[in-house]
Prior knowledge:
TIM Barrel; 12 helices
Amino acid sequence: MSKIAATFAALKAANKTGLVTFITAGDPAPELTVPLMHAMVAGGADVLELGVPFSDPMAEGPVIQRACERALKFNISLKDVFNFVREFRQRDTTTPVVLMGYANPIERIGVAGFVDAARAAGADGAIVVDYPPEECEEFAAAMRAADLDLIFLLAPTSTPERIAQVARFGGGFSYYVSLKGVTGAGSIDTIDVARKVAAIREHVKLPIGVGFGIRDGATARAVAEVADAVVIGSRIIQEIENTPKEGACAAVQKFVAGIREALDAP
């Protein structure tokens, strides 16, 4: 059983909703990435997504685009991201870490190189936004052989055929994008989310995390009624943007703790 699967099994046994949180590696400064990861765990995050900075992040809205731009000013590379995970693992050996990004950096080092480096660093899975499941059979097999989970995005426009492909190749959890558009856009329609998640569960037996548009405890709580986890990224990046660097970790921990409290409320 992978670390992500074990985490979701423990959450289910405890009747808790998972909290998946995202930051971009290297933002707002490289030396803050690992402390921010620990801050999110201290606030109650169950799974961490660590964004790999990319110059053309097509799925991201302005908030995460700016985070990528700030990180790229420090020349943060995929190798640096692996080093951040390795450093994080010196203190935390249990919290799953998922690398989230785009195909280009992986293609540059090759699938085998990526899988080997991710496993050696202590990562537990990956989300590759522009790797569709129908083109991922070999990559998914390589990840699975290394006990790493390949996590796919599903959208309001996903067809039953695409959902079935995700069920075939995906691992860890499935990430349902609750909005048409980019990260941080719009407001979430929880009734529509409930309907779509129910349709996904007909094909996908993995836990389902819902993200895009979750910005506060109330929304997180509403989504938790139908999802196994809530995923929050842009709103955390805004905390980082709006806080002096020396206060970023405390601000992020406080925000994440607020979401955790809302999810755990009776």
